[in-house]
Structure prediction request, 450 residues.
Amino acid sequence: MNQEEIITRAKSKTSKLVTFGMPKFGTSIIMGFADFALFALYVLGYQITPFLVGIALGLGKLTIATSQFFFGWVSDAKYTRWGRRKPYLIILSPILGLSFIFLLLPGLILDITNLDVLFIWLLVWYQIFNICYGVTSPYGAWMAEQFRVEVRPRASQYEQFFGMVGYAVITAFSMVILTEVFEKIQTNPENIPPEFLYSVIIFGIFPVVLFYLASLLMAKEPHFKIESNIIQNLKTILKNKNFLLVAIMQGISGIATITITGIMLIYIVEVLQFNDMDYIIAAGIMIFGMLGFLYIWRRVIQKLGKKQSLLCIFLLGFLILPLTLIGLIPMDSSLIFGILFILGLAGCLSGWALFPAIMYADIAEDDEVKTGELKAGIYTGFPSITLNLFQALGLFIMGIILELPDIVVGPLTFSLGLVLWGPLCSLIFVITYWYIRKFIQLDFVWEKNQ
Prediction:
């Protein structure tokens, strides 16, 4: 296949979009659990202090920053008989699933009443988990290699649809089941609740099966030559000013998004005081809200372009997040407010979820137009460095926020940080909004020609 054919790319059938999107279901479940419920599990369930859990999770973000960059980078280097990307999917995904199971079920091996040993267990297995999560960079490189620019929003919608279904599963599991698991673990630490045990094992198997199916069903990426070596590739992207600015933008927003996903469940439990039926309603709102907004935002991208759509997403987050301050007002029932708040967050988070894959695939192709070489792996993996460095900062901040003194609101007592995190994240989104308007290019001239 010559370089011109690579640039134009073949049309994509719906079956190819589905095959590409499937693995996102498994990775969204396990990473959604890690981001959404792991903090709450080790703090509320296993009784480790928020500061120590924040340190462990923050260090994990530094690890994932390295692994996603490394595997994206090296997967560009050699084309095998299975292609550039498939070998990494086949090797890393089983270790990813196993490390997830050990991370969530320390009671299979340890005496979890020994908090020092439990903290070390969390620290070690979270690093292994994040190393293997680097498999997502070779997988994500397919967006630039196998889909045309005008198809990428649709390909990302399929990918994020599977991702949101996975995220919905873990959200429902966290809100409906995990909140009771916390109490059971506190009451009897040595007994693993069976609904928790079997669910975690099944969740750990999903990414392995789906990555193997994608490896079997997805065509190999085109066999194009990359004449430059991996060091030259790194130098090339470091000279790409717009790419670096976009990566920094994603990192800045990551401080807020990791805080939202990490604290939201604790906020619902401790501040909104949802009961069993409230959790079910909230989970349903989050699930259908995120799926519905995926379609809405994809259409908005087609109508307004990528940059204007992204600005709208962060503007929505800016308006919604300060509402956490309502937790300072005693309420007889918080269900209506909780529904509106969760729906607003669903709109913001689902819109932002569409963008990273699209942005970096387009930037990789923009570089291809200029240099004649498609370096999709390194363009997919490198942004994880800035993203996870900023997310690590977000996790450290989150641990500090939740250590703020308790306040009393009516009959409730909770940390002041559980109402201040919203305005803080809103401020971060304002900074991101300004940064995008001033520095970022997301819509390219060559798109119109294609």
Notes: The chain is about 75% helix and 0% strand.
